Amino acid sequence: MVERILQLLKDRNMTPSQFADEIGIQRSGMSHLISGRNKPSLEFIMKVLQRFPDVRPEYLLYGTLETGNGFMEEKENIPEVMPKVPPTLFDQPEAADNKPEPKPQRQVKREKTERKIERIVVFYDDKSFREYEPE
After folding, report:
1. How many domains does the structure of the chain reveal?
2. Disulfide-capable partner of 40 in 44, 54, 117, 124 (CB 3.0 to 4.6 Å)?
3. pTM listed for this prediction
4. Where residue 53 sits, what CATH number does that domain have?
5. Tens of pLDDT along 17-71?
6. Domain span at residue 13?
7. Residue 57 in domain
8. Residue 97 backbone class (left: φ over 0; alpha: ψ -120 to 50; beta: rest)
9. What is the pLDDT of residues 5-14, one digit of tens each?
10. Which run of H or of E encompasses 7?
């Protein structure tokens, strides 16, 4: 992915510092990415895609676009990158008879007691304290 980011910098005629400023990351973070010390985070990728909407996520992530420079491809020309995943149990709407019965609510009896504040103690960081008592 670093090679594709460097290609983006070259195509945009930007320095790594300008690119970092443009997407809102620290310049040192950009330097660490380019040197290979760090890998791009999801946050970094999202910032690149938000700032440069013409960059195709498929190209940035996988480098799979074959035609053109890979940055400004129309959606119709992008080959299928991710395989179709069959729907899972969580994607299916629940049938009415498959819904679990709601659990009965447990009722808690609370006793009403009259409680009054006896005193309030405030502790300070210098290890002192102050007591307040109602009148």
Report:
1. 1
2. 44
3. 0.47
4. 1.10.260.40
5. 888 888 888 888 888 888 888 888 888 888 888 888 888 888 888 877 654 445 5
6. 2-77
7. yes
8. alpha
9. 888 888 889 8
10. helix 2-12
